[in-house]
Fold this protein.
Amino acid sequence: MKLQYAEEKPVQLFPQLVYPQPRSLEQKRLDVLTLTPWLAPIVWEGTFDSKLLDGTYKPLNLTIGVTAFAIGKYTTFVGRFLESAEKHFMKGYRVNYYIFTDDPQAILTAQLQPGRSLAIVPIKKYSHWQEISMRRMEAINRHIAAVSHREVNYLFCLDIDMVFHNPWGVETLGERVAAIHPGYYNVPRSHFPYERRSSSAAFIPDSQGDFYYGGAVFGGLVKQVYEFTRDCHTTILADKANGIMAAWQEESHLNRHFLSHKPSKLLSPEYLWDDTKPKPPEVRLIRFSTVNKDYGAIRD
């Protein structure tokens, strides 16, 4: 299917802003990796100028989409998610929230800023949370094809049981965006929980792998997210046909995809933190993090 996407925005000349001169021999962060071997930036606090970026992106009149799934008892997280997003996510930009749910009546009306909208997308509930997780790629892909490819320029796919704590802005925009998992950013790849069975379409050998990416945050240009979710859904179906469920369901397939289709931008663990972990010194700011919860109770 060939989709007609929302209007492509022309390259914008940098505005006439006053900002500190970049220094060729001076790095802003020496304690963390800020560039991958394939020259994709890794976004950390202290590596970008928000005013300069806003001056460049705001004239483009972009619309950024957000998908999140509130299935079963996960509807309880919607209010806090949206409230925190309205305080911190893409302030000053148009945002379309797409909340996928099996219980539309449970989603309360949210107070949104001008230029921001909320759409409820009805979806079937499956009996097992693993099946719900694997079906997310299919649902996002179908929604892009039907609706959001015409409405947004960029799309982020986020978990609903999370909260924004600090600004998340246009420094995160890119063609293909992945987030480094907070549990594995400082360990060797032999410790990554990749799918190790060669019979799975998500298989990654012990000798391969760049980073371990979290399934709770990914995004990019809407056409890139369409292709990514289509490919992941295809490999999930291939596994299902062979009676295989990857170690971490869609997250395993996401990691396999990003091994061969490198992200153009990586988000540091600031953008995908785990509140059960103490904050180390290299994580100067927590922007988006999980909500402490009883998984057994909410997945029942």
Observations:
- The radius of gyration is 19 Å.
- Strands lie at 42-43, 63-70, 94-101, 116-122, 154-158, 162-164, 176-180, 213-221, 265-267, 288-290.
- Residues 222-241 form the longest helix (20 residues).
- DSSP finds six helices and ten strands in the chain.
